[in-house]
Structures are given as C-alpha cells and as structure tokens.
Write a structure and sequence with these properties.
heterodimer; A: 137 residues; mainly alpha; globular
Chain lengths: 137, 111
C-alpha cells in the first residue's frame, strides 16, 4: 500500500476508534442496547466474537484497572497501544518526512504471514474466543 | 513470449484480474523474456469468488483480508469486531476488487 493511503487509513481508523471510545465513555450504556452493540455476530447470534469486550477493556484501562481490563479482554491492551502510538508515529513520520511506520507495517505483515508466527497467533485468538464465550461477555 | 501462450494464460486467468488490466498484462507478457514463463505459471493467483465466499462467512474475523495478503487490514477487522460489523458488510462488495488488485500486484512483481 502506498504510504499516504496507509497513513490516511490509519488516521481515519484511529479517529473512529477514539470517537467510539469517547461515546462509550460519556454514556456507559451507549453500546448496551439490543439494536446496535458494535458487533454483528453478537447482535445476530448472541455469542460474543473474539474481540467482544475490547471497548470495556479499554475503558477499564483508562480508569487504571489493568487486571480488570485483562480479565475482560486482553485485546484491549493491544488496541489501546495501537490507538496511542499510531497518531504520534504518523505525526513524527510526517514531520521528519520519513516512512518508518509504513516500513514497520510491512514488516509486521510479512511476519504474520510466516507459519511460525501465524499459527500461534491464530491459536491465541481462538483461545481468547473460547474464553470470551465462557465469560459470556 | 509467444502470443498464443500468453493468450492461453489470459483466457485461463481472465476472472482473476480487472478487465481493464487484461490488455496491459497481455502487452507486458508478450514483451517479457521467455525465461519468465515458469515464474508466470508458478504465481499463485487468488480466486475472487473464493474470497467472496470467505468474506460472507468469516469476513467478520478479517480472514478474507488475511487470505488475499492484506494482513494489516485483517488484524484491524479482527480487533474491532469486523469494523463494528459495518466494514464486514462493505467488504462483501469490495473484496472481489481487492483480490483482483492484489493479483495484479503479484503479476507486476514478476514482470
């Protein structure tokens, strides 16, 4: 992907992520209705998907409840890290006229395509999904 | 390369590329050296119909994007409940085009 497209996509995603978290922060019952809870699978089947509970996990982290957030969904940590790091990284890259984020993105893409990395990652996601269903998020 | 060989390749793989890309691929293949033929035959092109089926059933987890090689977007979809379900639905319509674009990228790497 061309650098500018990638940065545009990432900034858009971050903006949406921040807005979603802000909406849920201001009104904790925002995504707690039966019409739209942010997850298609949960809305249709009632079974949580692997990343259900991420919003609650990020909100718990913002209150400083690390253990609580990991117990909700460990993906919250990854999402918060991405949300915090990406805008700063994009700004630094734009100011320095470099493309370290794009290089890092490409490196992670190739890394995740290696079977040695992909299989453990898939296993972790599946385990997390089973845990999510068990917790009944 | 021989025009007949190239035309056979184009006929067999026409569905894997956008229609406007076909003439460009044909010209490039004809201009290419004969030694590139084994590589052209070996390149693994993804079928847009398969990615559409994957997108409809497991697109929520970003697996359609993983399959075509867009790992970053796949992770994004996985971590956000399929982009709050909206991206999943958008990708039902986008994934075939995205697959063809990825196939074109693969061809461009060889040629």
């Amino acid at each position: 992907m061309i650098r500018n497209n990638l940065y545009l996509l990432l900034s858009g995603a971050c903006l949406l992520g921040y807005s979603w978290i802000a909406l849920n922060y201001l009104d904790p019952a925002f995504s707690d209705n039966k019409y739209f809870n942010g997850c298609l699978i949960k809305a249709i089947t009632g079974i949580p998907c692997p990343s259900c509970g991420t919003t609650r996990s990020v909100l718990a982290l913002s209150r400083g409840e690390i253990l609580n957030s990991v117990m909700l969904n460990p993906f919250g940590l990854i999402v918060l890290l991405i949300l915090l790091a990406t805008p700063v990284w994009i700004l630094v890259d734009l100011l320095r006229k470099k493309e370290t984020l794009a290089q890092c993105y490409r490196y992670i893409e190739t890394l995740l395509l290696c079977p040695g990395v992909a299989i453990p990652v898939i296993a972790i996601v599946l385990c997390n999904w089973i845990w999510n269903i068990y917790k009944g998020l | 390369m021989e025009a007949s060989k190239v035309d056979m390749f184009i006929m067999a793989n026409a569905k894997n590329f956008e229609s406007y890309q076909l003439s460009q691929i044909r010209d490039k293949l004809i201009a290419a050296d004969e030694s590139k033929w084994p590589m052209v035959q070996m390149v693994q092109l993804k079928d847009p119909s398969t990615s559409l089926i994957i997108s409809i059933f497991v697109g929520h987890f970003g697996i359609d994007r993983f399959i075509i090689g867009d790992v970053g977007i796949g992770v994004g979809k996985l971590l956000t409940c399929g982009g709050f379900g909206i991206w999943t639905i958008i990708d039902w319509f986008m994934i075939q085009g995205a697959t063809r674009e990825k196939n074109m990228e693969k061809m461009q790497q060889i040629l």
